[in-house]
Amino acid sequence: MYVLGHLGLGLGIAWLVSYRRPAGVDYRLVLLGAILPDLIDKPLGLALNLESRLWAHTLVFVGTVLAMAAVPRVRRLAWIGLGVLTHLLLDRIWEQPQVVLWPALGWEFPVGGPTVEGFLEALLTDPIVQAGEVAGLIALILFLRAHGIRSWAALKAFVLSGRVPAATGA
């Protein structure tokens, strides 16, 4: 899964989970959490010649974020934790138990870092990657339309607050 897939589908999952009370969700933090593992691990993987799924793709990482959300002053971290959980789900991280269960299965991470060429090749040739990106884009568009975010001013208000207007009607 790449950027649009993680952002759109992560946002879509959070939207579905919270559809009865969407005004309470800070979707900016969900979006940050949805890409945070890659923002942390991909540069580290390149620098250390390791796999691109490292510490931020572990249950230790998401558990730490969610545990920190128990502190009253930073409860909003729970939204980042939700985003990270969607990231791990969309990455099918259970297929890499050495990573997701780190350090329970050992302290080592898989060797063989990502390359820009490999990233681009997968994006251009892998239909599953392409489908994830298209699905993510569609989810982003549907979210924006459903919440009346159809202008630059509305988008700016959403970006500044992270919230959507409360639903009206029955």
Structure write-up:
This protein is mostly helical and about 170 residues long. It has one domain (about 5-160). The chain is about 60% helix and about 0% strand. It is built from eight helices and no strands. Helix 1 (about 5-15) runs antiparallel to helix 2 (about 25-50), helix 1 (about 5-15) packs across helix 7 and helix 2 (about 25-50) packs across helix 4. The protein starts with a helix and ends in a 9-residue tail after the last helix.
Query: So what's the overall shape?
Result: globular
Using only C-alpha atoms, the radius of gyration works out to: 17 Å
**Number of helical runs?**
8
Q: Total domains, how many?
A: 1
Mean pLDDT: 89
Low-confidence stretches: none
Measured between the Cα atoms of the first and last residue, the distance is: 37 Å
H/E order of the elements?
Answer: HHHHHHHH
The percent range for helix content is 55-70%
Q: Kindly state the number of beta strands.
A: 0
Judged by helices, strands and strand pairing, the structural class is mainly alpha
- Percentage of residues in DSSP E strands: under 5%
The profile of the biggest β sheet is: none
